[in-house]
């Protein structure tokens, strides 16, 4: 028999209007909003704040307007009746974080109004998994992609204004203007440079944002404006990691150089803004960087030669070059193997994050024990100072590779469960062949909740592949 604290589960799918009516009926009958569950066992406030449900059946404009009004009224009712705006759903998402995603899917005026209501009810912007400002600016869930039509060249200026209103509201509520996303790729300034938006960068700088910020991979705003995809390539998840030119990166590059960013700086992979721009096909941005390098006496003849055959070849050839013909050797700033060792730390953090998947519990416990054995440093064939580790939480999958980007010709050793049946663990070696990642060898080990493969046996299988394909000690 249901008690006063047991969940009240509403059957779905319901039409949008029926779902709203059912939620309202229960709340007005005295059911506390946090007891009401819909969808994937989501609390009513979180479920209602997900605006995608307003569009799922392709409604016409008049229907959307009516749904938006009903939506906002229901959010206010739930909050007034005691719904907790900080209750997290799966993967750490809160009503505030899902509302921050609305700025690319819904009318921004409505999104900012809903955000204000949540903040007024006590929603804490420091409790979201990702920086809510980064999310408002267009950071997506799909492993590092950013997109926000409010900053397109042909966008209505009012849309950008609503985004700025949202950021100011979040800052007033305690959000940090320097907070990075949980993958440590972006701050709001780095997103502003990626989007190619001078107005956004000026707006952030006026509010105290550090325009010289550098992420843990060594990338700064000028590199993102140039076309830095290093972070995206290191953050795979079955999506395209192609960099897409947005906004006005030439104007952004000029502004950042004016603000004092070093045009000769290199990230941890040795990429400079000039290299990144040319690799991304942004020859006009590269020419701006070349001009700045010449002004600092750092433009090399080798740099100028890279413009050969482009429309800006003559313009760059007229710039003054330094006496050196090549770049000096890179200074080793980190101890050998530090980057590889750090990747194991990040993988462990991803696996043990409070928002990480914990189902099924038996496999998660086994997986953590297996990881700690592989990461112990006691296995000659799995040296943590020579191999990079990457953990994909949604797939409970560990990747080991010789290169930072495991999608490469040197290949990857993968430890992966069957996340549908949970009846097997697969250890495989795959290698990039053209545009395809091709499996060269696979070992399948049966498993069940009662009996998992021996950890030492899995370690031997992994070590055998790293020895054969990566030439690690046997």
UniProtKB/TrEMBL annotation:
The keyword Protease does not apply. Keywords: ANK repeat, Repeat. InterPro entries: Ankyrin_rpt, Ankyrin_rpt-contain_sf, Multifunctional_regulatory. The keyword Repeat applies. ANK repeats lie at residues 184-216. This is Ankyrin repeat protein.
